[in-house]
């Protein structure tokens, strides 16, 4: 893990970090905000907000087109952000970083380009049963078009991928394994390195959905040896509307474009059009320039942060939350994986998750309730959804305690007869 600039002996200063996130300092429903919905989207430090503001106030211009000062500056900053993203995940080459709207679009790009041209009848795509819908539905759509089939990989009652079941399902018909790095619904840290090696043993490609990982752990696509890695800027303290598809160069350069338009062509004529090389052939139309620049600022922010200290602080927060959940009468934790990050999913016995979420909100506490876009997992557990508290390094132990104090009140309100 990166240790950042702070020395190992300097304690992680959560109050100093919080001061960088202006949104955190506000009252909601008459209480200080406790933001525990970080898995849905993270908050943005001033540096990111300022970078976006500077772009619009100082050098807003389209990229790659203009022969004027502002266009040059916008293009330079936009491409600098791509270099930052490449370094952030240790990409061998910057051309392997393709801007997308986010994880969802990155996965759809692979489905519509690589999978549409490489899958055929009888081929298989393996997807763990705990995946987010955006790592299920695109594969179902392309399977329908190609005659391939999507097979779920079993998940244990604890919320871990059943590796024995995965191995049993692996043969040369499997062309792709699409797996999340960290589960958004349960926080399970999946053994992606093992899964990548297993997939490669049978000649399958492996795509990692890194949406939940990038905020919590350093990512090294070369060490992982994955074929594709997808992530969203907004879950790692950057803006919405921007994300990355990283791909192995040999795969990306053989893939057909999936959207046509400006920026992605070399020459256009009615006799035939030729396409740009990487990464532009996959970036039709005006990109989210402010978003890319904002994501670059988020990466700078993370690089300057004591990431080891932040990770240790997050682990302490989650441990405290799990401990309190387990000693809280009537609270059932959903998911008991050995390795978890960032997420506590739970139910309050006798109460609907939506009611719990609403009453927590009345006390200033923001959580998400529902199926978390992981319906097959909820179906497996026979539950309508969960209450999900998800943490970032700017949360405090006091906020964890406030969650459970508020939950005590919720319990009295919803279940006055239960002790
Ligand atoms: N994959 C995972 C694992 C996710 O958690 C999410 C978003 C996505 C893909 C899609 O990312 P997007 O940026 O393209 O939307 N997860 C959530 C969540 O847990 N609550 O709201 C969004």
Detail the topology: elements first, then pairings:
Blueprint (H helix, E strand, L loop, with lengths): L13 H5 L8 E2 L2 E2 L1 E2 L10 H14 L9 H20 L8 E4 L2 H16 L5 E5 L8 H10 L2 E5 L9 H6 L5 E7 L11 H10 L3 E5 L11 H4 L3 E5 L10 E5 L1 H4 L12 E3 L6 E2 L13 H16 L2 H20 L4 E3 L9 E6 L4 H9 L3 E2 L1 E3 L4 H7 L4 E5 L6 H18 L5
Parallel strand pairs: 3-15, 5-6, 5-7, 7-8, 8-9
Antiparallel strand pairs: 1-2, 4-10, 9-10, 11-12, 13-14, 14-17, 16-17
Helix pairs in contact: 2-10, 3-10, 4-5, 11-14, 12-14
Bound molecules: ligand 7TS.
Short characterization:
This protein has 14 helices and 17 strands. The chain is an alpha/beta fold and 419 residues long.
Q: What is the CA-CA span between the terminal residues?
A: 44 Å
* Count of alpha/pi helices: 14
What is the CATH architecture assignment of the largest domain?
3-Layer(aba) Sandwich
Mean pLDDT: 96
Would you identify the CATH H-level superfamily of the largest domain?
A: Type I PLP-dependent aspartate aminotransferase-like (Major domain)
What structural class is derived from the secondary structure elements? Answer: alpha/beta
Share in helix: 25-40%
Q: According to CATH, what is the class of the largest domain?
A: Alpha Beta
Biggest sheet: strand arrangement = 4-10-9-8-7-5-6
Which oligomeric form is depicted?
A: single chain
> What is the makeup of the main sheet?
7 strands, mixed
What general form does the structure show? globular
What do we call the CATH topology of the largest domain?
A: Aspartate Aminotransferase, domain 2
What small molecules does the structure contain? ligand 7TS
Count the beta strands.
17
Percent strand: 15-25%
Low-confidence stretches: none
Total tally of structural domains: 2
Radius of gyration: 22 Å
